[in-house]
Amino acid sequence: MQSAIEAPSVDRAGHPVGPTQEALEFPGLFRRHVAMGSTLFQPGEPRQLYRVESGALCHYIQSAEGPYEIIEFAFPGDIIGLGRLAKHVTTAKAMVETSVSVITDADLDRALTNDNRLFFRDAEAGEREFDYLKNRSLNVSRPPPLQRVANFLLAIASINASGNREPLIVKDDVSSGYVADQLQVSLDTLAMVLLSLRRSGVVDVSDNGLRILDVAALETVAAYA
User: Fold this and answer.
1) Which residues contact 89 (CB under 8 A, 6 or more apart)?
2) Which of 2, 28, 11 shows the shortest CA–CA distance to 96?
3) Residue 38 in contact with residue 96, Cβ under 8 Å?
4) Which residues span the domain enclosing 107?
5) What is the rounded CA–CA span in Å between residue 215 and residue 203?
6) Does 94 lie in the same domain as 33?
7) Which regions of the chain are under pLDDT 50?
8) I need a labelling partner for 42 at 20 to 30 A (CA). Which of 25, 63, 129, 208 fits?
9) pLDDT per residue as tens digits for the range 155-198
10) pTM for the structure as a whole
């Protein structure tokens, strides 16, 4: 087990502080030291939750076009690594010498019961992942409409599964103008694509929304349409 390295840190006002008593008592699995300028996690790595014990982290995301967008700064007591996907889609880098505790989903659930700020941060992380998957599906050399719609449906199914919802039911109105705008297709084209997927037995309409009937076929369409 790696011991904690207690290094100077800063609070949200920029003042040097050490780890709080609450942080010291938090039952993390083990401590991890992150040197200044080093990365705690980055896109593509298995998702892991951490609690900052000392130091400070810069949490940011990089768009497909290249610019970085700062999401937040994490200080002692903050939980970072929130999300529902199996892998991180953002990056966390140490601004100073930093120590974190590895925590579990059960630890997060307990913390969510009495931390409203954490609740909203967790919800924002889920929305950020959805936007990431949606943008990734649209930025692959502008695939044909059928492939774009298939990738969009698979992205929603992935978010549903990670959020303990029925993964094969798409409750949103996928034939709406909003979805057409997001996929950069006309409403008529979107309607034709959905009709084609229904006639092929890939999807169907149910009382609860659009139901994905054949995930394997949809994945094939998404990859090779």
Assistant:
1) 43, 61, 83, 128, 129, 132
2) 11
3) no
4) 9-130
5) 9
6) yes
7) 1-10, 16-25, 28
8) 25
9) 888 887 776 778 788 877 777 788 888 888 888 898 999 999 99
10) 0.54
